[in-house]
Amino acid sequence: MISILIFIVLTVIGFGFFGWNVSKVRANILLGRDLDRTDRKAERWKVMTLVALGQKKMFARPIPAILHLMLYAAFVITQIELIEIIVDGVTGNHRTFFAALGGFYTFMLSFIEILSILAFIATFMFLARRNLLKVPRLVKSELNGWPKLDANLILIAEITLICFIFMMNGADEVLYNQGQSHLAGEGSLGLAMSSWIGPMLFGNMSLDTLHIIERIGWWGHILMVFGFLNFLPYSKHFHILLAFPNTWYSNLNPKGQFNNIDSVTAEIKLMMDPNADPYAAPATDEVPQRFGAKDVTDLTWKSLLDAYTCTECGRCTDVCPANTTGKLLSPRKIMMDTRDRLVEYADGKRKNGKDYDDGKSLNGDYVTAEEIWACTSCNACVDACPVNIDPLTIIVDLRRFLVMEESKMPSELAGMNTNIENNGAPWQFSPADRLNWKDE
Amino acid sequence: MAEMVAQGEMPDILFWVGCAGSFDDRAKKITKAIVKILNKCDVKFAVLGTEESCTGDPAKRAGNEFVYQMQAIANIEVLNAYEIKKIVTACPHCFNIIKNEYPGLGGNYEVVHHSQYIQSLINDGKLTLQDGGVYKGRKITFHDPCYLGRGNDVYDAPRELIERLDAELVEMKRCKSKGLCCGAGGAQMFKEAEKGDKEINDERTEDVVETKAEIVATGCPFCMTMMTDGVKTANKEGAIEVLDVAELIANAADL
Questions:
Q1: ipTM higher than the 0.90 cut
Q2: Which domain holds residue B99?
Q3: Are residues B8 and B102 in the same domain?
Q4: Which residues, numbered 184 to 223 in chain A, qualify as contacts with chain B under a Cβ-Cβ cut-off of 8 Å?
Q5: pLDDT tens digits, residue range A357-400?
Q6: Residue (of A170, A167, A8) closest to A89 by Cα position
Q7: Is residue B182 a contact partner of residue B92, using CB atoms and an 8 Å limit?
Q8: Per CATH, which fold does A31-57+290-406 belong to?
Q9: CB of B62 less than 8 A from some CB of A
Q10: DSSP for A27-55?
Q11: Phi, psi of B87 (to 5 degrees)
Q12: Mean of the per-residue pLDDT values for chain A?
């Protein structure tokens, strides 16, 4: 009875704290500027199904794709077993669905066990890729410190979780063999892996020890799940949930297309309108929106969702022509900076009130001009992202602020702009000579 | 264009030459190759000449929305005044911006890249290439311009043109959607590269050298500059030629 009570309290806390954190993340994302991404719904469902659920873009790199698939499949399927654990926890029953589902139960759990073994292998391979093989994109400098620890912690948590599953099922198998399980009856549970892992590891143990191991496995499993769930909002691992909305809200336009800033259009139209009254009061009292992005709140909410979705895999940085040739720019760092700054900004406001200003900004304090100006806008990072994150939009918004609000840009570009304004070409040629090629 | 209108005629297409195609000595050759092809096929086309102005692309990619929109709105006024319906460009940057970003400012046209247009001329039987032309059997690789490939998903048209030459099309290890940028985009063409340990065009030239191709074809005047420089730096000037797909076709058709 007391264990049921503890379980219910833990479950409520586990889901409650997660819900509270999710609502905080949601509020942070909505600090971004408006953007309508609700058109072409059928296409959006399709993109989400292919890219998030089907992991289509992962398969550009087959080895990590297969390892990732092993982990992903196990993760999704294990949620079914979790349903039983929760039902058992609340009712105090043992393996509630065993009798009801019969052969299907054995099949499902065996399936989960086989996938768990594959996931176990994959997790070790992932640890090796990060810590032994040192795959270049997984050891770049922006991962030093917390990001590296974060990645390893998740992998270790996954290994622990799988160990708990086999402690639970393995010990219960041995108990059931002897007719001593809390499950009525005697024989084999018939689980694909535990029916031999169990006797092998726990075969000679006393009944008391077996019961303890089984309970450690059971409680360990559910506690890991709650711990994992509540770690997500603080971790790069949040991608397992956010990949879905993030791909649904993907940019469906050609990648080469940048948005036109409407306020600029309005001003130019006004300039060109001979009937406009230059002294007319503005139509609204609204403070005009800043051009480009100084801080995270000047980005669209989609860019902020992108930042929370990023799992720091570094495929973007790996294909970035600037990064590949030794420049400072790393698209992954842009995403990490955006998220870190957003968390810092929002937490600061929550703690110190709405008018609090910490004097910092994304543009300058986190991302430097040298990074911003190294981008060739080639879209390789956008193409490479397995969950359709778009670092380029952020880079361009940061550029816009530097140029239009602060007039800070490489001097050659200032010259180029002047040439375009005066000569209608980025070089110093006379517009009158534009057709000279015809007679050359 | 003005002359044509004065004579009461309307062109089938407007050839948007672009700044590079108008002023850059190397790119002017591409412009001429396209004109030769258009003339050969009796396409009724016009150019804006001195009425053409920069699309505003480099300003926009460099973060200056004002200069871009000033250019765009002025260009759209000219294009709309002439009631232009279809535009062919020789520059993926002009192509992308007129096709994707001008509509939001009131400029709606059918825009095609010259590789797509030449492909349609061949498909319609207006342009025929003799079997066993000058490029027969030669190894040619294609460098995807970012704003044509990833930017607008045009990968096939330029490749089909190369295949029409009876040439051997070889791909670089990074090609199509995985193609490596030449280093010129995002207004980098007009500034020094940021500090690094290598130039991007040199990195890209290594990809070309690896294919052992004799010709690297492209479809962008800025890629042309970058790849030509890269080949020069790698001391491969004698071994690797950099040509636009339009030049390949014009040469093969003996124009």
A1: yes
A2: 2-120
A3: yes
A4: none
A5: 999 999 999 999 999 999 999 999 999 999 999 999 999 999 99
A6: A8
A7: no
A8: Fumarate Reductase Iron-sulfur Protein; Chain B, domain 2 (1.10.1060)
A9: yes
A10: HHHTTSBP----S-HHHHHHHIIIIIIS-
A11: -120, 135
A12: 94
